[in-house]
Amino acid sequence: MQRNDLAAILEAVRTSELSVDDAVTRLATLPFEDIGFARVDHHRAVRTGVPEVVFCPGKTAAQVVRIFTTLAARWRPVVATRATEAVFLQVKQAVPDASYDAEARIVFVPDPDAGEVGLVVVASAGTADLPVAQEAALTARLMGAKVETLWDIGVAGVHRLVPNLELLRRARVIVVAAGMEGALPSVIAGLVGRPVIGVPTSIGYGTAFGGITAMLGMLTSCAAGVSVVNIDNGFGAGYIAALINRGIPQEE
């Protein structure tokens, strides 16, 4: 249920097209549904415009399936992050229209009514950064953003970036996934006047410290347009990018 669905129910009650009892039945699972081991937040889509997302690590496959099916009964899109193929195969049995992106590690059912608006560009510094970058790209796309991708354009061959400047300038927001020293977000933010979301990845040799060096480099960027999410957090970057791309709706 999105905000417009809630408004439609209230309007139907106002015009007597829907009884109060029927409206109560439809709203019975708001704000959450208690399924024992989890309380599924059905009110999140009303508050934020995006349904609850399932984070798979730490949960059993059975728990992921139960939460996913509970959400799928009411919402689109349905998204489960950091999912293995084994988890996907079990979800698929319960929700036949579920799909899996192995690179992004996301199980999802898209919203068939969602259009693609604006433009989010997701770039990776290297091929090794692709899983994180693809997680960001698919997240933003599932949230209704038009997404273009640029892979393997890191500073070791910065000339690869130049032919893509026109695309970067057309973006409403840019997500950049980079490991090693994490320099690419600063380079892009210094070339285009768009918000850049840096995603430090855990790619790199010993003193990369599992992404800490890239994160600190991005946090100390001399380019003013760079903000930073946590290490390997492609989902968080894609989510924020989609919100920026969508803009802030005015309250009626």
What would you note in describing this structure?
The protein is 37% helix and 18% strand. With 252 residues, the protein is α/β, with parallel strands linked by helices. The protein has two domains: 32-114, no CATH class; 117-246, Rossmann fold. Strands 8-7-9-10-11 form a five-stranded parallel sheet. The protein has a four-stranded mixed sheet with strand order 3-4-6-5, with helices on both faces. The chain has a two-stranded antiparallel ribbon with strand order 1-2. Helix 4 (61-72) packs across helix 5 (85-94) and helix 6 packs parallel to helix 10 (234-246). The longest helix is centred in the middle third of the chain and has 13 residues, at 130-142. The protein is globular and about 65 Å long. It starts with a helix and ends in a 6-residue tail after the last helix. The mean pLDDT is 89.
Number of helices: 10
CATH architecture name of the largest domain: 3-Layer(aba) Sandwich
- Gap between N and C termini, in Å? 19 Å
Number of domains: 2
* Largest sheet, spatial ordering of strands: 8-7-9-10-11
Cα radius of gyration in angstroms:
20 Å
Unreliable residue stretches: none
At CATH level 3, the topology of the largest domain is Rossmann fold
What is the strand tally?
11
Assess the beta-strand content as a share of residues. Answer: 15-25%
> What is the CATH C level class of the largest domain, in words?
Alpha Beta
Helix content: 25-40%
Largest sheet: 5 strands, parallel
Choose one word for the global shape: globular
What structural class do the secondary elements suggest?
alpha/beta
Order of helices and strands: HHEEHEHEHEEEHEHEHEHEH
What integer is the average pLDDT? Answer: 89
